[in-house]
Amino acid sequence: MTDSAIPLGPLNDGAISKTNARPRGDKRSNDVIEARQRRLYKHQLEGLTPRQLVYEHASRESVAVTTAWRDWRVVQAWNEEDWARDREKMLSRLQQMRSKLFHQALKKGQLQTAAQVLDSLGRVLGEAAPEQIAVSAPNLQIQIENK
User: Fold this and answer.
1) Which residue among 21, 69, 91, 119 is buried most deeply as judged by most CB within 10 Å?
2) What is the DSSP letter of 84?
3) Contacts of 121 (CB under 8 A, 6+ apart)
4) Torsion sign, CA atoms 12, 29, 35, 79
5) Which of 78, 74, 54 is CA-nearest to residue 64?
């Protein structure tokens, strides 16, 4: 094996080990690398699969596919950090969006949408529809056998 063919290991593992680093380190500054990773973070909202995102990132940024996968692992770590930080606040934000959607639906006369949003709000608050209560109630069956 030559110095130019350093094994990178599996592309989808979570951490980058020191043995996978380039022998002389990345020639770009950390600011340039982080800016490139931030651009990938922004593009992940386009609805593409991770593989498509990585390949487009590699061609758009003119970097190797392995570097693009390395950037993707950093972006995934950022996503997990964001989710852990915002998870507690997410319910209140969802409720606010539902409330806003309800008022907009009423204003535009979309009563079916308004009813669905109210249903959703009721389920969050623990309200169950009568049909659901009837289905979940136990059934009692009594049979009298002949002598």
Assistant:
1) 69
2) H
3) 95, 98, 99, 102
4) positive
5) 54
Q: Structure tokens of 26?
A: 């990345």
Place of tokens 């770590």: 77
Domain ranges of the chain: 18-136
Which residues lie closer than 8 Å to 129 by C-beta, 6 or more apart? 119
Asked whether the beta carbons of 115 and 138 are under 8 A apart, the reply is: no
pTM: 0.51
The first and second tokens of residue 140, run together, are 């009692």
**CA–CA distance, 133 with 126 (Å, rounded to integer):** 12
